Amino acid sequence: QVQLVESGGGLVQAGGSLRLSCTTSGIAFSISAMGWYRQAPGKQRELVAAIFSSGVTNYADSVKGRFTISRDNAKNTVYLQMNSLKPEDTAVYYCNCQNDYLGKNNYWGRGTQVTVSS
After folding, report:
1. Would you say 114 and 87 are in contact if contact means Cβ atoms under 8 Å apart?
2. What's residue 78's pLDDT?
3. Smallest Cα–Cα separation from 62: which of 34, 90, 42, 41?
4. Do residues 83 and 17 touch, judged by C-beta distance below 8 A?
5. In the chain, N or C: fewer CB atoms in 10 Å?
6. How far apart are the C-alpha atoms of 112 and 77, rounded to whole Å?
7. How crowded is residue 31: how many other Cβ atoms within 10 Å of its Cβ?
8. Predicted confidence band at 100 (pLDDT cuts at 50, 70, 90)?
């Protein structure tokens, strides 16, 4: 059974930090591209950061220099370290997994709320 479970969200003041975790099971984690997306009220879901099986990373311009994505293949977990948070970072953050194991797969977690107060 595929599971992606996000944790670590919460309420933080502007300038603060949070670390999100996405613990997975039932997926071929080590060969997967893992990503963090976010969706603010009234807006489309957008890619925040991605990390490929090679370790190469990609970031949205709005979070470059503030957010860091990492992965631990031994724990089947991907992280998002968020520093210097801004009110505009407020959103539901979703974990995403994509791989080509026995077909094209695209899995989502249920999301975790991040709220940044000014």
Report:
1. no
2. 98
3. 90
4. yes
5. N
6. 15
7. 12
8. confident
